[in-house]
Amino acid sequence: VRLVESGGGSVETGGSLRLSCTASRFTVRNVCMGWFRQAPEKDRAVIATIGSDTGPSYADSVKGRFTISKNNTKNFLYLQLDNLKPEDSAMYYCAARPAGRCIGLQWWDFNYRGQGTEVIVSS
């Protein structure tokens, strides 16, 4: 199983980015997928999940600004980041959980994750 993120970068407050995650050796449609992030000197935090039969779920800190989605044809996972704030600056990781629930997860509930892509938001 391999997950590879892309799309990070530097933007100003209020800007947007779209993170992508490509998966190999499994189908994103059939598993719970998510994004978590880690800012410097802070714990990792799950910010969005989407399951095979459950809709998107978001952390309060990003609700209304971020959108998680899957492209089942291309086998990609996305995270659209809008209205970015400096506190969104972090390393963002794509993650997969092949079995089990897909709600109320902590980052350690995921079995696989990518190497991360960095988002920097300047004020």
What does this protein look like?
There is one protein chain. A hairpin with a 4-residue loop joins strand 7 and strand 8. The chain starts with a strand and ends with a strand. It contains no helices and eleven strands. The model has no long low-confidence stretch (mean pLDDT 96). With 123 residues, the protein is mainly beta. It has strands at residues 2-6, 9-12, 17-24, 32-38, 45-50, 57-58, 66-71, 76-81, 90-97, 112-113, 117-122. The strands form two sheets. Strands 2, 4, 5, 6, 9, 10 and 11 form a seven-stranded mixed beta sheet that branches. The protein has a four-stranded antiparallel beta sheet with strand order 1-3-8-7, with no helix packed on it. 0% of the residues lie in helices and 49% in strands.
